[in-house]
Design a protein that fits this description.
mainly alpha; MetI-like fold; 11 helices; about 280 residues
């Protein structure tokens, strides 16, 4: 028996099976209707997809993927650094530092990311096509503020006894934070950090609005030229899914490397050298 619900009886299992079959059939029919509608609208014709098999356009698309990965990598590194600095600052013993850190983090968490990117683009940089600085700065400030809360929560989640033991050894607060709390906080909050890194990668698509290099900007040029919005959207979505899966796998691998415990192998000593019988008593001299 489950503590949350009663085990279904024969009639309930039949009803569940029927409901499952009906749901699957309904989904299949809905998908077939969508495919039929798209076929009627000539969305599956060869000329809509030919661009994605043309070497010249594939090269342009490949460069867009590299630009997207480059922007995401720079933004992730800067956001993590920003998050560590301001997450630790929010736990400072000095009230002015805490106040400044709290204001910065809460402000950039509250401002919509797209508005932040556009504001930086208009007021801080030359609005030339292909510039990535406003996008990187916007991604860093917004996602770094979110990560600051992640790191703050992770540091507070470290058992209090370990912190008190470190203070008992004579360590200062800075050393305790750097040596004891932060390493454990990273391990504790690694799933949240990975999720936020995936968000950074997806948010690079907002570069579309300021003409920053990347997949969405190139995608707009493709569908404008070939009038294949659906095909372009499907291809770009597939590329983003692949990139996010790769990033997630890298994050999971790093998490396993950080959290795996090292086992110590026991070494069997020879009885003659240890001076102990197999039964545990002392050897006769």
């Amino acid at each position: 028996m489950s503590v949350l619900y009663d085990i279904a009886g024969p009639k309930a299992r039949r009803r569940h099976a029927i409901a499952g079959v009906v749901t699957v059939v309904a989904l299949v029919l809905a998908a077939a209707a969508v495919i039929w509608k798209l076929a009627v609208e000539d969305q599956f014709t060869a000329d809509k997809w030919e661009v994605f098999t043309t070497p010249a356009y594939l090269e342009i698309l490949g460069q867009a993927v590299l630009d997207t990965v480059r922007i995401a990598a720079i933004s992730i590194v800067l956001a993590v650094v920003f998050g560590v600095v301001f997450g630790v600052a929010k736990l400072s013993d000095h009230a002015p530092i805490r106040a400044v850190a709290w204001t910065v983090v809460e402000f950039f968490r509250a401002v919509p990311l797209l508005l932040l990117i556009i504001f930086i683009w208009f007021w801080g940089f030359d609005t030339r096509v292909g510039i990535i600085a406003p996008l990187v700065i916007g991604l860093t400030l917004y996602n770094g503020s979110v990560l600051a809360e992640v790191f703050r929560a992770g540091i507070n989640a470290v058992p209090r006894g370990q912190v008190e033991a470190a203070y008992a050894l004579g360590m200062r607060k800075t050393a305790v934070t750097r040596i004891v709390q932060l390493p454990q906080a990273v391990k504790i909050m690694m799933p949240s950090i990975i999720s936020q890194c995936v968000v950074v990668l997806k948010d690079t698509s907002l570069g579309y609005y300021i003409l920053a290099p990347g997949l969405t900007t190139i995608g707009r040029e493709i569908w404008r030229e070939f009038d294949n919005r659906l095909a372009t959207a499907i291809v770009l979505a597939a590329i983003y899914i692949v990139l996010n899966v790769i990033l997630s796998r890298i994050g999971v691998y790093v998490q396993k490397r950080l959290t795996e415990s090292k086992t110590v192998k026991a070494v069997d000593l020879e009885p003659a050298r240890s001076g102990v019988h197999h039964g545990g008593g002392p050897t006769a001299r």
